[in-house]
Amino acid sequence: MSKRLLGLLVAVSSLLFGTTSDTKTSQTSAGNDLIGVLNESASIASEHRLNVDDTPEFVTVWHRQELRALGVKDLFEALSLVPGIQTSVMQNGIKKVVMRGFNNPDNFTFDRFKLIVDGHIVQTAIFQNTGYYLNYPIELIDRIEVILGPASALVTSGALTGVIKVTTRVRGNREGALFARIGSYDEIMGGFCETYPVDDGGSLGVEYYYRVHDRSLEASDYILENSSPAISESSEWLRDYSFATNYREGNFQFSARTKRQVHGNYFGWEEHLEMSDEPSMANRYLYLQGQYNSDIGPKERVHVQLDYSHYKFDSTAQSYIETPESAIPYEFALYLSEETWQLNTHVATERFESHSLKAGIYISETRQIGDRFDILYPNGSTLNTKLVHSGLTRNISSLYLNDIVALNDAADIHLGIRYDYMSDMKKGYFSANTSFLFRLKEGLSLKIGYGHAFRTPSWVELYTYPNPGVRTGDSNLEAEESDIIEGSLIYRPSLNSRLLVNIYRSRIRNLLDIFENPRSDPDAPGYANLPSRFSNGFELEYRLKPTPGHTLGAAYSYNGTNYTTEYGTSQPMPGVARKNGYVYYILGLDASSTLSAYLRYMGSRTVNLDTNRNDVPSYTTLDLTYSFSVVEGAKLFMGVKNIFDEFVADLSYYGRHDGIVRPGRRWFVTFEYQL
Amino acid sequence: MRCTLFLIMLCSSLHPYIYNDSLLLIYAKVVPRIMVLDHTQRNGTQKRKLCILYEKGDGPIAVKLRDLVRQNLPSQVKKSFIVDISSYDETESKNCIGSTALMLLDARTEKIDKALKLANRHRLLTFSYSNSLLENGAAVSLLVGKEIYPVININAVKRSSLKLDTALFQIARIYDGSGIR
Question: pTM (2 decimals)?
Answer without folding.
Answer: 0.86
